[in-house]
């Protein structure tokens, strides 16, 4: 396990270097200036080598003596300083906590440092991007969202947790799953199954699919948060486990799959630490309607928003492979989408006892 104190010292050093640079500029009589990566769509690209979405090399300057920048410059230094304090106290706080800790009226004025959290959140991302760190490494936490089950034992601080004995609720994936926080003590699995929906995950857990099929089952309960994405990446890289994604057959489920695999545009500055490029899409697909004789009455017609999103997906570079273009074209041609729960029409346990086992055996994946 990576030593927490050593890692924290490295992060504090990066924050101090940022501050020291500004002090040096002030001592020279220069305009204090921060150089920050441009986090706009125009500075994002798909890296064919790493197969992840990445931030380009364009940067912008935030200058204290530029009246348009002054407030945001002040706020950025406040955020960086507060993060350093949190790390030094060996604490972890939410981004909401951070906002309230920093909000106060500036002495001698009637102006607040921050008016709402919408001002502080983007500055956290600026610091993440400029220092090449995840917010979890800055001791900032998000609410726990994902759940996981399987034949695996982890050490979380002083607690040793057996994921095979977590009952119907599973283990709640923490926000920070870095090696210095979560150590994988034991692992017995042939693959990881990433399930889009909580209700479907519960069917797989109740049916002990992970035990029968020797796998790890995890859900992000919709759009996956950073904690479960990072943990799946660790399972893939450290334990060489294949990762299969089980999503709704609609543009939204397929986009969630792409976020797990390639990353998201909004987090392009950190996707090498979050994305799992070897992830394969195991279903649901429109083609499964015929293949598994799924009754057509459980399919749903596409709406205008679905069609617009589908066209966007077709244009993304990471979806240009012919298998995906064929699937998108078929969805549009049939004018249908489908939820995973629709498979219950074939029987409550059809998805765990027939559908998934057959797909895995036949390696019926989309790349």
From TrEMBL:
Question: A single GO BP annotation from the record?
Answer: DNA replication
| InterPro entries xref list | Spo11/TopoVI_A (IPR002815), Spo11/TopoVI_A_N (IPR013049), Spo11/TopoVI_A_sf (IPR036078), Topo_VI_alpha (IPR049333), TopoVI_A (IPR004085), TOPRIM_Topo6A/Spo11 (IPR034136), WH-like_DNA-bd_sf (IPR036388)
Per UniProt, the keywords (alphabetical) are:
ATP-binding, DNA-binding, Isomerase, Magnesium, Metal-binding, Nucleotide-binding, Topoisomerase
Please report the stretch or stretches of sequence annotated as the Topoisomerase 6 subunit A/Spo11 TOPRIM domain: 191-360
Its domain of life?
A: Archaea
Q: Which Gene3D superfamilies match?
A: 3.40.1360.10, Winged helix-like DNA-binding domain superfamily/Winged helix DNA-binding domain
Which ranges carry the Spo11/DNA topoisomerase VI subunit A N-terminal domain? 71-139
Q: Where is the Type II DNA topoisomerase VI subunit A all-beta domain positioned along the sequence?
A: 147-185
Record bears the keyword ATP-binding: yes
Cofactor(s) recorded for this entry are: Mg(2+)
GO cellular-component term (any): chromosome
Spell out the reaction equation it catalyses. ATP-dependent breakage, passage and rejoining of double-stranded DNA
Q: How does it assemble?
A: Homodimer. Heterotetramer of two Top6A and two Top6B chains.
Q: What does this protein do?
A: Relaxes both positive and negative superturns and exhibits a strong decatenase activity.
Q: What is this protein called?
A: Type 2 DNA topoisomerase 6 subunit A
């Amino acid at each position: 396990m990576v030593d927490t104190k050593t890692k924290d010292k490295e992060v504090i050093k990066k924050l101090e270097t940022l501050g020291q640079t500004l002090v040096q500029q002030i001592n020279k009589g220069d305009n204090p200036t921060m150089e920050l990566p441009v986090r706009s769509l125009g500075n994002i690209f798909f890296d064919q080598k790493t197969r992840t979405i990445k931030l380009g090399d364009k940067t912008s300057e935030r200058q204290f003596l530029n009246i348009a920048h002054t407030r945001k410059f002040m706020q950025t230094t406040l955020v960086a300083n507060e993060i350093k304090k949190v790390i030094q106290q060996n604490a972890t706080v939410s981004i909401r906590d951070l906002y309230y800790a920093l909000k106060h009226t500036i002495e001698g004025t009637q102006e607040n440092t921050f008016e709402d959290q919408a001002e502080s959140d983007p500055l956290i991302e600026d610091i993440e991007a400029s220092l090449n760190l995840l917010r979890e490494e800055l001791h900032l936490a998000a609410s726990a969202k994902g759940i996981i089950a399987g034949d695996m034992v982890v050490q979380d601080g002083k607690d040793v947790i057996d994921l095979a004995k977590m009952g119907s609720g599973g283990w709640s994936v923490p926000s920070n799953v870095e090696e210095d926080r979560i150590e994988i003590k034991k692992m017995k699995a042939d693959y990881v199954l990433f399930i889009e929906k909580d209700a479907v995950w519960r069917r797989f857990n109740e049916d002990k699919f992970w035990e029968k099929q020797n796998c790890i089952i995890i859900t992000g309960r919709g759009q996956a948060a950073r904690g479960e994405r990072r943990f799946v990446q660790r399972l893939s890289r450290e334990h060489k486990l294949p990762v299969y994604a089980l999503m709704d057959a609609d543009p939204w489920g397929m986009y969630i799959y792409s976020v797990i695999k390639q990353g998201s545009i909004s987090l392009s500055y950190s996707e090498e630490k979050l994305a799992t490029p070897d992830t394969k899409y195991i279903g649901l697909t429109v083609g499964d309607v015929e293949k598994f004789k799924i009754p057509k009455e459980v399919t749903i017609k596409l709406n205008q928003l679905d069609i617009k999103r589908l066209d966007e997906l077709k244009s993304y570079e990471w979806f240009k492979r012919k298998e995906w273009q064929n699937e998108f074209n078929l969805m549009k041609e049939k004018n249908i989408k489908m939820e995973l729960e629709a498979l219950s029409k074939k029987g409550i346990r059809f998805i765990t006892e027939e559908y998934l086992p057959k797909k895995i055996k036949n390696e019926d994946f989309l790349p």
